[in-house]
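Q: Joint fold for the lines below.
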Amino acid sequence: MRRSWIKQYDIYIYLIAIVVCLAIVLVKILIPEMKSIPDKNQSIKEKNVQLARLEKKRSLLESVNIDTTQVLTLAESALPSDKDAPTVLSTLENLAIQAQVDILSINLSPGIVSTESGTLPASTQGPRNATETRKKGILALPVKITIFSDAGHLTDFIKKTLTSRRFMDIDTIDISYVPDKEGISASLMLNAYYLPAITEIGELESEIVELTPQELALLRSLEEYTDMSRIDYEADISLPTGKQNLFSP
Amino acid sequence: MASREINLIADKHGLSAHAVRMRQVFRRVVPIVLGIFLIASVSVLVLSFDASRKLNDVEKRIVGEREHIGSLSRNEGTYLMLKQKAVALSKILAIRYPYPELWEFLKSLESDSVKIERLSLSDSGMTNMVVKAQDTEAIDTYINRILEGAPERFNFINLENAQLQGGKFSITLVAQSLVAAN
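A: Joint structure:
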């Protein structure tokens, strides 16, 4: 009796079992997988964009070579990382020699010249950055120089100052005619620019703003600016040789 | 007429006609449905597996690039410094006050009878000058010559003061240049 009942309805039991299995596979496996495919594709798109950015940054960094380092050395001589007062003084001295003007006085107050590791403890510090000046948003060391010359050499001095490799700008020029000496006394208020080096770089994935062609051209053109901080003087020493022949009169 | 044997009693061990038909339908339809389901399942799983594989590949490449960039930190510092200096130099050069040209222009207007006694130039554009002259005609000529060159160089020229002292005339002029550095 029972066997005949099962035999009559076994087809329905198989059908229900198959449907239940298919439903479980559908709900537990297939539907979640189907839902995850668009998310994965979206993630792939985003990560491809991220990868392209990283590849671009890497190729940019790999392009840094000896030439880049040389350009940086040039830029450093134009815009040093610290006030570099000695270079300013030697530059002005050499400019005066080249332009044939007489320096009457030079006045500058560099202030703090040590690195940050050398700063005093906070309790003993006086007023900070008393001499820190910014011009056009860039740090500058103010220098006052007074010279004596004639009009032509003064013009030459001004031009050479504005074309020296150590970048300087002129704030004011005060010119007075000195009748006794038939010349001109000029006081120039200069700003010798400097730019502290960066001490931190961004995160690995931070974008780097590339140098524009104009900026690259400007950096390479620094070679044409005369480095007045050092001048090679040819040795012009005539030493007495004395008698070649001890017995000659 | 010979009689024929019939069995009117139902066979309890055999299948009904409906059950036989159901079995026939089952044998035809279920394999097709299962086949379609299998193909669909495999397609979905293949697509999902492919997407996972691509995602893993991209993530591996990203990790590799990050490591590579990390090893180039010195180059990054060099490049950033170069960019920093280039931007600053561009700013400095963007407006440079034309001191040499202005000084040469004012000097060129001097003559035997007119001399600059004091001159003050600043990159804000203000020019103050005291000029000494032998006579009023010389001063007049000097001012006219400045005015001739004024449109190219100055926004305005102001004659602040004029005096006669010790037999010599002196005038104070204030001018605002067209170009200012800041």
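Q: Anything notable?
A: Chain B has a mean pLDDT of 84. The longest strand of chain B covers residues 154-165.
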